[in-house]
Specification:
5-stranded mixed sheet; alpha+beta; about 575 residues; 8 helices; elongated
Length: about 575
């Protein structure tokens, strides 16, 4: 089934578009959605509010694209329980746009975990609002190559919203227009805008900023988007239309079944717009981008919709004119041929520490020329709990004037061993570059007692003072370092002694070796109380840590000294 394309204004759906919507939606129901007696798809539990002002929505209830996801097969409806597999073309999302959606989801998971925002919801809204930023026509920083503007909200068939930004975002000083890949109206962007790519700006034309803003907008109330009723409310708050809700839910369901990354600029686009002749100023149709797969030599033209003409149709019943080929110059990303290591040294760190060396990669053309302003994605892979200093396992960085991108510092977790960091070019299918990083166990190079009191005990007694040591590594506190403590036979014989002082196990039995010890956050380790058997003499306790630090402590067991007996005093003789 071929998808119908068009731009839909609220409350004005032509008969053909409605029929296509009904057919496709009936074929695959989204969660929380039922079909009424007329075959129309409706969601349960939530109705759009007729009293909600357009200015209170994200988009001003602006028009939106009515392109439907393709069906799995020509069959009108799969049987119950059939899994719908997304078609390869529509399931592909341009790399930078997909990266923006996933980063926004990660940010919301951190700041508003109760919201349960799925990135697929942002993708569904982005598809309906802008065709995924016009098929991913964005630069390496995520900004659209040209502005994406909705029609004037001048009351002629749409909401009437007078200018609120002096044309700063939409270039219109009379009326507001929805702006950017997520189609925010300026008055909403003023408070909802976010900086999603860390460049210090909040730009509705930047897909990172817009995706993060959309995520916060959808999560601004105490909604749990894992619940259908709250999900409905959030979508309706974006655009207060049941048709819009149903369409977004259809795309959400579609993307949940599987998506994949495609190069920027190769996504599919809506082929036309329909403002229903309402007198609005239509935005020129976006320039088609390069298709993701080769087209056949000759493709039939899209038939016109029956029942009337649309702007740009070329007349009622006539075929639409073929748009001119794209004249957009290649982006820097388009010129990248490969990635080179930019002098990264050996990547080694102790568990819990930050790697001193940062990963550097350089983007180059096929002739070896450096390419600036290309987004390089660094991804931590393998069985590891290491992260970047941002707290995430993925980081995207723009190359500088020398073509070099430097990843954020790596921070080792507690898992030891090797893992891999892969560098790839966002929006470009070139071979990735792998870096091996190694995490070693925590170590200490010095151990010292925290006190200097002599450790003595009488036979069969207990030592009054416990042994406490402090571990350091290169002068800094060595925390969580593994250690062992053993009562040894002699300084040159590390075997366990079979007599003299001892520790007690949980059952009170003597033990002379303790394992599984660890220093605390201050590098301190206090050993359990020591006891002595009946053997007297000088004994040795050796403490050793990972990294080779050792300390030998002297213990003395001796009988208590007997005070000298007092000599009797001679009593005075009685007087005669």
């Amino acid at each position: 089934m071929a998808a119908e394309f068009g731009r839909l204004r609220k409350g004005a759906v032509n008969t053909t578009v409605a029929a296509v919507v009904v057919a496709a939606l009936a074929a695959s129901q989204a969660p929380g959605v039922t079909t009424d007696g007329a075959g129309r798809k409706v969601t349960t539990g939530t109705q759009p509010s007729p009293d909600t002002p357009a200015a209170d929505s994200a988009t001003g209830n602006s028009p939106y694209y009515t392109d439907l996801p393709p069906l799995n097969s020509p069959n009108p409806a799969p049987s119950a329980g059939t899994t719908v597999t997304p078609a390869a073309g529509e399931a592909g999302i341009p790399a930078t746009v997909l990266d923006a959606y996933k980063k926004a989801e990660a940010a919301l998971r951190e700041s508003k975990p109760h919201c349960n925002l799925p990135w697929q919801l942002l993708a569904a809204i982005g598809k309906v609002e802008s065709g995924q930023a016009r098929g991913g026509r964005v630069d390496a920083n995520g900004t659209t190559l040209s502005k994406i503007l909705g029609p004037q909200l001048n009351g002629a068939g749409f909401a009437n919203i007078s200018d609120t930004d002096d044309g700063a975002y939409d270039g219109d000083a009379r009326y507001d227009r929805a702006v950017g890949p997520m189609q925010f109206i300026p008055s909403t962007w003023k408070w909802a805008g976010r900086d999603g790519n860390g460049d210090g700006r909040k730009d509705p034309n930047n897909v990172y900023d817009a995706a993060l803003a959309a995520g916060h907008y959808l999560c601004r109330f105490d909604w749990n988007l894992a619940e259908q009723a709250d999900l409905d409310r959030a979508i309706l708050s974006y655009n207060n239309s049941r048709d819009y809700l149903n369409l977004v839910m259809r795309w959400l369901d579609y993307y949940r079944k599987g998506t994949h990354e495609i190069p920027d600029g190769t996504g599919t686009l809506p082929s036309g717009r329909s403002d229903d002749g309402a007198g609005a100023n239509p935005t020129p149709s976006p320039t088609p981008s390069t298709p993701s797969s080769p087209s056949p030599p000759s493709a039939p033209t899209t038939p016109s919709k029956p029942g009337g003409s649309e702007p740009g149709d070329g007349g009622s019943g006539g075929p639409k004119p073929t748009p001119p080929p794209s004249t957009t110059p290649p982006t820097p990303t388009d010129t990248v041929d490969h990635l080179e290591d930019a002098g990264t040294a050996k990547l080694t760190a102790m568990a819990g520490d930050t790697f001193a060396e940062k990963i550097s990669a350089r983007a180059e053309t096929d002739s070896g020329k450096a390419v600036a302003r290309v987004r390089v994605r660094f991804t931590i892979t393998g069985d590891t709990d290491a992260v970047f200093s941002t707290g995430e396992k993925v980081a995207a960085v723009l190359t500088d004037g020398s073509g070099k991108a430097v990843a954020p510092a790596l921070r080792a977790g507690e898992d030891t061993g090797e893992f891999t960091v892969r560098a790839t070019v966002v929006g470009r299918s070139v071979a990735g570059l792998d870096y091996t990083a190694t995490v070693t166990e925590r170590a200490a190079d010095t151990l010292a007692r925290t006190g200097d009191t002599a450790l003595t005990c009488v036979p069969g007694g207990g030592f009054a003072e416990r042994v406490e040591v402090k571990a350091t590594y290169k002068g800094a506190v060595a925390d969580k370092v593994a250690a062992t403590a053993t009562l040894i036979k002699a300084a040159d014989d590390p075997d366990e002694n079979d007599k003299g002082p001892y520790f007690k196990d949980a059952d009170g039995k003597p033990v002379r070796t303790l394992t599984g010890l660890k220093t605390d956050a201050d590098g301190l380790l206090e050993l359990p109380k020591l006891y002595a058997d009946d053997t007297t003499g000088t004994f040795l306790l050796r403490i050793a840590t990972a990294g080779g630090a050792t300390l030998t402590v002297e213990l003395k067991v001796a009988a208590a000294e007997t005070p000298p007996a007092e000599e009797p005093t001679e009593s005075a003789s009685p007087s005669a």
